[in-house]
Amino acid sequence: MITSYELRKKYLDFFASKGHVVISSALLIPENDPTTLFTGSGMQPMVPYLLGEKHPMGDKITDSQKCFRAVDMDEVGDSRHTTFFEMLGNWSLGSYFKEEQIQWMWTFLTDVVGLDPHRLYITCFRGDEESNVSKDKTSAELWKTLFESKGITADIVDFPERDGMQGGRIFYYDAKKNWWSRAGVPHNMPVGEPGGPDSEMFWDFGEDLKLHEKSVWADQPCHVNCDCGRFIEIGNNVFMAFKKTDHGFEELQQQNVDFGGGLERMAMALQDTPDIFNIDLFSNTCRILERMTGKKYGDVEKETYAFRVILDHIRAATFLIADGAVPLNKDQGYFTRRLIRRAVRYGNDLGIKDLFLSEVAQGYIDTYKDVYSDLVTKHDFILNELKSEETKFRSTLESGIKEFEKLLQGFAMAEEKTGNKIAEISGKQAFKLYDTYGFPYEMTEELAHEQGLTIDKKGFDEAFGKHQELSRAGAEQKFKGGLADTSEMSTKYHTATHLLHAALRKVLGDHVGQKGSNITAERLRFDFSHPDKMTDEQKKQVEDLVNSAIQKDYPVSFSEMSVDEAKESGAIGLFGDRYGEKVKVYSIGNPSQKPLADASSLTFSKEICGGPHVEHTGLLGHFKIQKEEASSAGVRRIKAILE
Q1: Given 118, 170, 218, 477, which residue has the most CB atoms within 10 angstroms?
Q2: Considering only 326-340, 370-384, 430-444, 489-503, which range has the smallest mean pLDDT?
Q3: Are residues 232 and 143 both part of a single domain?
Q4: CB 397: neighbour CB atoms within 10 A?
Q5: Does residue 479 lie in a domain region?
Q6: pLDDT digits (tens, 9 = 90+) for 74-92
């Protein structure tokens, strides 16, 4: 059996042999992208290069990217959903296109890792009249030829969702299934977003698999996209050749390939299990949970659900904490906190009464230590954060569940008295659980759902009050600028962030380093390492330095160099294995000089970066700090605007 570790290595080695440069995974917290909280796909860090910007490492790239999708949190518990996953990816940035990509994927899947081609099925794009993009006959015919080279008949079917598989091997679907952009179907894409038709690969677990008989699809024609449980997508070749404009779609200046294949899903095919939690990446930690609980994974359906939630959530929390998303009540930390709390709750259901999360996390650190060395170097930090959060929540969980059970008893007594069944928890009751007992609304909602109850959400929100809006509701504002926001104002704010970073180091000291940023078309937010609240005088000094740099109208330029050259030049950045051999270094002022302590120097800022920038600082306007506050322990936050 090929392990997940071997699969990852074979994939990267294969594409390296085809001239691709292997790069390290980006962080789960995106850099220079204000439009989303997490890196949710392998292509996300690649957007500037798909749009035409030159990648420092060339036009053929491959990696295994860490991803987190909060939207899947409530789906976890079935046999195939996880919030954290690795996406194997390869990109052609104008180098090769459909013929090479399809041939290479066929070779990798059938020859390199040895998947049985008789159990592979393919989907292609049917075309979309509204977006004026035609049917992808080229991909379908390429796949057909490859199947036939193995002696496999490969009929092409037009409408499988309507007529079933009809003995087909290759299937056309519409834009809902076979068009890829981060915003989904073409009409949902914001202006500037790249996308294109895709061709997906599915693995067949066998028509005798009984999962589909229990599903909502049981009485409908089975096909590869029906979600019946028989098939699972293991890879997606996106032929990203289009960009949304104000007038529809236009072709990008280069034809790109963006392949993404879930490491865990490919492992499911290779290890021939329809349950993702049975692959080797979970086996070590699953054994730890079985030992703790005295229960066997897979024996009892309700307990298996709890196992899956814990296995997924603590793996995700371990990686999130390592990448800087410590448990908090807002932004990325909100989701880390929610993952941990749900895991504790389901551990409680399995009878675990003692602290257990750090031991589960240790299982994952051991599993991934040879691939992600930062889990080892941050070992103590990760486990301490988990212990602290679990300790704080355990008393909350116990008291909250007791109060919820009292609520149910009250409902039962009222029903017995009046004969009327109570089907809804009032907003006031839900808020009392939150406000008095510290019980998260989402957990009340989850428990209510299990009891067949609903919650008056509107009443809860009114009771909650405007001053304590849910972090998730606040997070929605991060998407208002659309994806891949490169608007003029966002570009100005991005450049102003460089000036702010340099000014803070000048005023507060070289210990200042960027800990996060969020940029919209209305303002910038910058998190930085500093132990103390800034004085009014310090804030004024920073403002004056930034505005002085703006008035001097410094040129903004970049050059490509090695990481060592970047360090030697005085560039600041989060050095480590996250960068490839070459990086982009943006200079504000004279690029040939190191930044000097004297703010009047011709070099004001020099920083590793890949985001959009203005050509000279005089375009920025007047910089003003609106707020300086604590973000987390040892980290301060500045919110500022350009007037």
Answers
A1: 170
A2: 430-444
A3: yes
A4: 20
A5: no
A6: 889 999 999 999 999 999 9
